[in-house]
Known about the structure:
The protein contains eight helices and no strands. It is mainly alpha-helical.
Amino acid sequence: MIYLFLFLEFLRMGVFAFGGGLATLPFIYELSGRTGWFTAEDVSFMVALAETTPGAIAVNMATYAGFQAAGVLGGAVATLGLTLPPIVIVGLVCKVVDRFRESWQLQAGLEGVRPAVLALITLALLMLARMTLLHQVDLAPAVGEWAALVNWQAILLFGLALAGMLKYKKHPALYIGAGAVAGLLIA
């Protein structure tokens, strides 16, 4: 039964998580809240692992989440559920896109989808920022403990990486590797 549940949950994500891998983060965070399969810290680790391993971030997160919930078969089922809708949808779109490319209805629909996708990605960004830049994921510090809540080392690494990316525009793997080395040196 857990395999069917995993498949259906990730199938839903595959249908509605437009905008790339991080757009699945709100769905995974919501799933973790409903099932208790992983904590907010587990989700943070899942994102970090998915971003530093080869492959699509969403697929890596689905595989990890499924594995955490139900082992190797759970990882395979979650991955299949996530990837099946885009494969089917892209296949169908490829068959009809040329016929409707100039359609005002298609253009209007896409104009409406883009802001919704941007909101979904922005939510994922905010969730990831909270998980990364703060020591606590749940914001409930006592009065006077706000300074301890902030992960100053993560903020410094974030600032340095962002400045480097904006100024030098090197390959993303360089910044990921530098971040891993910095994390090892700081620990």
